[in-house]
Prior knowledge:
By secondary structure, this protein is mostly helical. It has helices spanning 2-28, 38-66, 71-93, 99-126. The chain has a single domain (2-126), classed as Membrane associated eicosanoid/glutathione metabolism-like domain (Four Helix Bundle (Hemerythrin (Met), subunit A)), CATH 1.20.120.
Amino acid sequence: xxxxxxxALIAIIFIALSVRVILxxxxxxxxxxxxxxxxxMKRMRAQAxxxxxxxxxxxxxxxxxxxxxxxxxxxxxxxxxxxxxIVHGYGFSASPPIMLMRQAGMMLTFASYLVSIxxxxxxxxxxx
Length: 128
């Protein structure tokens, strides 16, 4: 499955974002919550944003794959989602945050959604 490869790569991004939170907590001896620490909040939100957007993108991609879409379409969806998550995660995590990268990352993420949605509608209603 092509989706599985992209899921694995995006999981690596999620792990990296999670490790940043964990290490910051350990270095600063901070337990649950954000303790009002802006650096910790930023790291937590970068991790949470990945957790919020990546699974739905991968779900859409998997549904496209189940419709027997062309591998090139799947790679376009997966590469766009992956690049979006990398760019957004880096832009969000930078100090100070790089707004242009955050915006570009979200645009790429939404572009992957829209390509998946278009493929699903085409394959479900037009192609059959």
